[in-house]
Amino acid sequence: LTPQDVLGELDRLVADNRRIHDADCVNLNPATNVMNPRAEAMLSTGLGSRPSLGYPGAKYEMGLEAIERIEVVAAELVAEVFRARYAEVRVPSGAVANLYAFLALTEPGDTIVAPPPSIGGHVTHHAGGSAGMYRLRTVPAPVAPGGYTVDIDELRRVAHEVRPRMITVGASLNLEPHPVPAIREIADEVGATVLFDAAHLCGLIAGRAWPHPLEQGAHLMTFSTYKSLGGPAGGVVVTDDAEIAQRLDAIAYPGLTANFDAGKTAALAVTMVDWLVAGQGYAAAMVATAARLAEELRAAGVPLFELADGAPTRSHQLAVRAAAWGGGQAAARRLRRANILSCGIGLPEEPVDGDVNGLRLGTPEVVRLGMGPEDMPELAGLVARGLDPDSDPETVAPEVTAWRRRFGGVHFTAQQPG
Ligand code: PLP
């Protein structure tokens, strides 16, 4: 390949990605979102290639007056949106945010208790992820019968038996509020701390549509900034505890970052302004739209995972029981052929051989593109037809694309959609 070939191919790949995400497909994967174009523009302003080593007011390299101000503004805005005393924004991703939390509050060889994959527990809390790489031993939290969270009585028993240094809560699928106050009580009994992983829930927490984990007793909260939050790829840790904040500060610098991405930090600041201006409306619309989508899917005969009281969800996410499709990833691949984007997830029921047993859907992106509850009957019909084993999903794809093209712009920003 010549250099020109490579550049040409990259241009084509960027155009392909735009076509897939911005024109052809409806994105029901809750792990992604569209950004405010003003935030996205921050990623190509020349900030990202500049150094940022050191503390504001005492940067090591010269000429960083503007960049150190961006760092301060972003951290202050994150703290304001999340109603927290301290925000650490020099974090490359949600996965690394969890590593920051482990480094701050545990030692290699310690035991932690974390949600298992059958209730959406993330790999970063387990052997294959940052917990395991830091040599923590993870004991899976017991699962509540008929729910999608932990069983508190069993958790108390397990915690007294294994004496964890930390109990984590929050997952890649969250269908009902987690019992954080009771978890904190158990943690206090055994001398553990509580980490709330809000990778997915952070938008609902920012928009006051979900109980606030720090107010409920979590010692610290980590999250990704590009899922329900709709910002650039990155991570954040927030806490109200001054000593934990000081440890996180030393982990960020000089610990795990020297220079961080100031372009991403500026994009995060723009995203926070959106949350201050329009966040409550956005969070409420994500939840209302997910509830309607679930209702319509159920009416169309799609088997949904249900909570103990029969409700499919109280959040912006929902899950299809995917055994009939051979598993969640198999169902997601089928929907991809219908131009509907989604992915697999674990559910606390019969496993499926060689696949996860659930299909995860969510509303962050469709709502930000301007869809609401009133659009869900039509969308649920397209999803149900895409999943119908008796029809070819490719016959649904053109209709999905035609429907997708009716929506556009980025809603719930400090400006109106453009
Ligand atoms: N924690 C949970 C619960 C997640 O679902 C994810 C998803 O990727 C992460 C952490 C990691 O976040 P990131 O993709 O920002 O590294």
Topology, pairings included?
Blueprint: H1 3-24, E1 26-27, H2 37-42, E2 54-55, E3 58-59, H3 65-81, E4 86-91, H4 94-105, E5 111-114, H5 130-133, E6 137-140, H6 152-162, E7 166-169, H7 180-190, E8 193-197, H8 202-206, E9 220-224, E10 235-239, H9 242-256, H10 262-299, E11 317-321, H11 328-337, E12 340-341, E13 343-345, E14 358-362, H12 364-368, H13 376-387, H14 397-404
Parallel strand pairs: 1-12, 5-6, 5-7, 7-8, 8-9
Antiparallel strand pairs: 2-3, 4-10, 9-10, 11-14, 13-14
Helix pairs in contact: 3-10, 4-9, 6-7, 10-13
The chain binds pyridoxal-5'-phosphate (PLP).
The site of pyridoxal-5'-phosphate has 15 residues, from helix 4.
Strand order of the largest sheet: 4-10-9-8-7-5-6
Give the helix/strand class: alpha/beta
- Low-confidence segments, ≥5 residues, pLDDT <50? none
Question: Biggest sheet, in brief?
Answer: 7 strands, mixed
Mean pLDDT level: 97
Shape, per Cα inertia axes? globular
Radius of gyration: 21 Å
Fraction of residues in helix? 40-55%
Ligands, deduplicated: pyridoxal-5'-phosphate
